[in-house]
């Protein structure tokens, strides 16, 4: 009887150690809308429907970052994020090319990179300048 209890105890320890304790609520997708929450999304731009790539140019002017997505200027990172969200809803497999000026702080580049990753854009590349 004692060897059987030892075996059962070892099996119990094995199953406890190999089990993953993730809450099911965190795994399942949900469309939870909290009271007072408003969802805002930029309407899709007809020019963005036939894109091959997204070029995000990050400029540094007057100690402020400026963003240009496919030749359109944006003043706020939230506006850039809204445009990227609307593009990702249409085509989420587009490559995003980050073209950064040399004097832009790294923090501003990481903000755009993180926004792309959070939205679901996974093909993020950095533009390289040619040395003459």
Describe it for me?
The protein is α/β, with parallel strands linked by helices and 132 residues long. The chain has a domain at 47-126: Nucleotidyltransferase, domain 5 (2-Layer Sandwich). It has four helices and five strands; from the N terminus they run H-H-E-E-E-H-E-H-E. The protein has a five-stranded mixed beta sheet with strand order 3-2-1-4-5, covered by helices on one side. Helix 4 links the parallel strand 4 and strand 5 (124-126). Helix 3 (77-90) packs parallel to helix 4. The termini are far apart. The mean pLDDT is 76.
Q: In brief, what are we looking at here?
A:
With 132 residues, the protein is an alpha/beta fold. 37% of the residues lie in helices and 19% in strands.
Show the helix and strand layout.
Blueprint: H1 2-18, H2 24-27, E1 54-61, E2 64-69, E3 72-74, H3 77-90, E4 96-100, H4 106-119, E5 124-126
Parallel strand pairs: 1-4, 4-5
Antiparallel strand pairs: 1-2, 2-3
Helix pairs in contact: 3-4
CATH-scheme architecture of the domain at 47-126: 2-Layer Sandwich
Q: How far apart are the first and last residues' alpha carbons, in Å?
A: 82 Å
* Order of the strands making up the biggest sheet: 3-2-1-4-5
CATH topology name of the domain at 47-126, in short, is Nucleotidyltransferase, domain 5
Rg calc: 24 Å
How do the helices and strands follow one another from N- to C-terminus?
Answer: HHEEEHEHE
Structure characteristics:
4 helices, five-stranded mixed beta sheet, alpha/beta
């Amino acid at each position: 009887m004692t060897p059987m209890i030892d075996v059962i105890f070892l099996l119990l320890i094995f199953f406890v150690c190999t089990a993953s304790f993730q809450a099911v609520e965190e795994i399942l997708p949900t469309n939870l809308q909290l009271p007072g929450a408003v969802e805002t999304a930029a309407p899709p731009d007809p020019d963005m429907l036939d894109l091959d790539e997204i070029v995000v140019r990050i400029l540094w002017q007057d100690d402020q970052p400026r963003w240009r997505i496919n030749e359109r200027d944006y003043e706020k990172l939230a506006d850039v994020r809204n445009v990227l969200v609307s593009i990702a809803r249409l085509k989420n497999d587009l490559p995003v090319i980050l073209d950064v000026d040399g004097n832009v702080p790294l923090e501003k580049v990481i903000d755009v990179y993180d926004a792309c990753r959070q939205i679901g854009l996974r093909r993020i590349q950095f533009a390289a300048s040619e040395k003459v």
